[in-house]
Write a structure and sequence with these properties.
This protein has helices at residues 7-13, 24-41, 48-67, 71-94, 100-125, 128-141. With 144 residues, it is mostly helical.
């Protein structure tokens, strides 16, 4: 018998095993909201890796908007990307699409978006060199 993707079942089966070690914002705010979009997406043919690619696109758009001094819009796109970063894992766990390739895609995504964000902020604020250095250092010393 197949388990139906109800909100309650998604909360049980899609919860990341180490979610309590996650940052406060994702644990106590976004994870309580993400299940509703996950509920929609598990009913579609979209894959977790496609969500990860969409997350990267949103992150790059947000970074570019920083460069054009559209900071609030940039933050909105980056937050949507971060939100999708939680959802891709939930969809992968529900659809049993977890893979080493998906983990690698997620890692590469972080190595692109985070430095791009710093570089975009550097351009938007006029501190291009500082943004470039911060972006490069985030690649070298970042948690992702």
């Amino acid at each position: 018998m197949e388990i139906k993707p109800t909100i309650k079942n998604l909360r049980i089966h899609c919860k990341k095993p180490t979610w309590r070690n996650s940052p406060f914002y994702s644990t106590y705010v976004l994870r309580h909201i993400s299940v509703y979009l996950t509920w929609v997406l598990v009913r579609t043919p979209i894959t977790a890796n496609q969500i990860t690619v969409l997350q990267c696109i949103f992150g790059i758009i947000g970074s570019v908007l920083f460069g054009y001094k559209k900071f609030l819009l940039g933050v909105l796109f980056l937050q949507l990307g971060y939100f999708l970063d939680l959802i891709d894992g939930e969809v992968a766990r529900w659809k049993n699409q977890q893979s080493e390739g998906g983990k690698y895609l997620d890692l590469i995504n972080h190595k692109i978006v985070i430095p791009a964000m710093f570089f975009g902020l550097g351009i938007g604020t006029g501190y291009v060199v500082v943004g470039m250095i911060a972006g490069l250092l985030s690649c070298k010393f970042g948690r992702s």
